[in-house]
Design goal:
Layout: E1 8-13, H1 19-30, E2 33-35, H2 45-50, H3 52-76, E3 81-84, H4 87-100, H5 106-120, E4 128-133, H6 136-146, H7 156-171, E5 178-182, H8 192-207
Parallel strand pairs: 1-3, 1-4, 2-3, 4-5
């Protein structure tokens, strides 16, 4: 008997790891509906970059609320959705990083964390979480290749802190099925054999073809 079709596939990974590219490729291959992060209509981003300590909590709550809304839509819908970035990354990566950098107060961070854990009891984890594990040199190389102006000033220590938080989260992830793809050795964007291998590994996870 075949398993029912997955409802929600999520791709997680650091800045520059290839989340958007893989989301687009898998959506096309599987005929899934892609869902990308909308940064153009975020009402807090400009204020946040102007005064990070003042607006960090507001920004993170906005992200959390927005992603929760999308999760509700995914589970109400009938199609399989592949999501670029997850609700977990807001809570386990970006909010802790802001707190550790002194850009969010202890009071706000504890309030945010408590709010997330209460929300999490109502949230279905993805049917499959795909984590793009990437070393710092690979991240830097891929960020430089795509040439986004606002990413040019990303500091190495910032990327490393995020990477450490990502790996810590993934090492303890038990919410559902997990597939780790090593981007240092998997060039799915430019190599059709690498992409085919990624597809085989996803099929094995979703359909039990070991």
């Amino acid at each position: 008997m075949s398993k029912k079709a997955p409802k929600h596939i999520a791709i997680a990974g650091n800045i520059g790891s290839g989340k958007t590219t893989l989301t687009e490729m898998l959506a096309k291959h599987y005929k899934w509906t892609p869902h990308f992060e909308d940064v153009d209509h975020n009402p807090y981003l400009v204020d946040f970059y102007d005064d990070m300590p003042r607006w960090s909590f507001n920004l993170q709550v906005y992200f959390l609320n927005n992603r929760l809304k999308h999760l509700i839509e995914i589970h109400k819908g009938s199609s399989t959705v592949i999501q670029d970035r997850t609700i977990f990354e807001d809570a386990y990566i970006f909010a802790p990083n802001l707190y550790e950098m002194g850009l969010m107060t202890k009071r706000d961070f504890e309030n945010y964390t408590s709010f997330f854990h209460n929300l999490k009891t109502f949230v279905h984890p993805p049917d499959l979480l795909i984590y793009l594990k990437t070393s710092i040199p690979t991240l830097v190389d891929q960020i430089q290749k795509r040439g986004r102006d606002y990413e040019e000033n990303l500091r190495l220590d910032y990327l490393k802190r995020l990477n450490d938080l990502y790996n810590k989260w993934i090492d303890s992830y038990t919410d559902g099925p997990l597939l780790i793809i090593d981007i240092d050795t998997t060039n799915f964007a430019d190599n059709s054999e690498s992409f085919a291998d990624v597809v085989r590994r996803i099929d094995a996870q979703l359909h039990g073809l070991f």
